[in-house]
Amino acid sequence: MTVNELKTALSLETLVEGDGTRDVTTGYCGDLLSWVMSRADAGCAWITVMGNINAVAVCALAEISCLILADNAVLDEAARARAESEELPILRSDRNIYELAVALSRLLPS
Amino acid sequence: MNIQLHYTVSADDFTRAGEASGAVKAKLKQLGFRPDVIRKVAIAMYEGEINMVIHAGGGVADVDIEADRVVVVLTDQGPGIPDIEKAMQEGYSTASETVRNLGFGAGMGLPNIKKYTDDLIIDTEIGKGTRITMTVLV
Ligand SMILES: Nc1ncnc2c1ncn2[C@@H]1O[C@H](COP(=O)(O)OP(=O)(O)OP(=O)(O)O)[C@@H](O)[C@H]1O
Ligand SMILES: [Mg+2]
């Protein structure tokens, strides 16, 4: 499914529009950047509370399709600007990481 | 093909960190390299770049792009790595609390570089600095 479809299905708030036509094939949860770069698959939706510029850099380098901030976590301004220039969609929810992961897994083919 | 690129990575500048690896990623894409090769180079170089920022007060990056390989050499004048075997272990980190709060310090950077490259050479001398040479074969 595309990022836009995922956004609608999970009723996520849009913080950065980005390229919503990107395909999402799987998910990844976690907040430590090197773990993400080690374990997240290209094309995933990354669910985290890490809303800083380094997280955005990781998304670009590791070909992550979109960043989903759980627990209404804060996106800082530098991160927003970088995401806009990278066309990285950043979405947000008041649900926690577990709840979002469960909801995402129901949407994606296993 | 033989393209050489050079970047300066400034000290403790987290807001710019990733710029060199991002630029190399864009260059490789433009040159038509395979996506999996580009991803490996980008992640390994970013880990090395961030390590220079966090642990060594910055440094320089030299990238050599050839048709069959990409070689990234990261050189710093930082404190050096006392025990490479330890540093290569998953989970070993000397990162500060401040840096950990930014999401770094999992102790996974060097293991990631190893994982995503075909060859990794670490030359380091205490008090002098570190040079990391990583090669990704196409
Ligand atoms: N360029 C360097 N100069 C000096 N010490 C380094 C350098 N690179 C790595 N180290 C040492 O090796 C340790 C392990 O590095 P590694 O990249 O694996 O983990 P980290 O940087 O601490 O955390 P992470 O990469 O997961 O954010 C570091 O904590 C640091 O002590
Ligand atoms: Mg590191």
Helix content of chain A: 40-55%
Structural class determined from secondary elements of chain A? alpha/beta
CATH hierarchy: architecture of chain B: 2-Layer Sandwich
Helix content of chain B: 25-40%
User: What do we call the CATH topology of chain B?
Assistant: Heat Shock Protein 90
- Which descriptor suits the 3D outline of chain A? globular
Tell me the span between the first and last alpha carbons of chain A.
13 Å
List the ions, cofactors and other small molecules found in this model: adenosine-5'-triphosphate, magnesium ion
User: What is the C-level CATH assignment of chain A?
Assistant: Alpha Beta
What's the overall geometry of chain B? Answer: globular
Oligomeric state as shown: heterodimer
* CATH first level of chain B: Alpha Beta
Strand line-up of the largest beta sheet of chain B: 1-2-3-5-4
The CATH homology group name of chain B: Histidine kinase-like ATPase, C-terminal domain
User: Kindly state the mean pLDDT of chain B as a whole number?
Assistant: 95
**Looking at CATH, which topology of chain A would you report?**
Udp-n-acetylmuramoylalanyl-d-glutamate--2,6- Diaminopimelate Ligase, Chain: A, domain 1
Major β-sheet annotation of chain A: 5 strands, mixed
> What integer value in Å does the Rg of chain B equal?
14 Å
Mean pLDDT of chain A: 97
Order of SSEs of chain B, N→C? EHHEEHHHEE
The low-pLDDT segments of chain B are: none
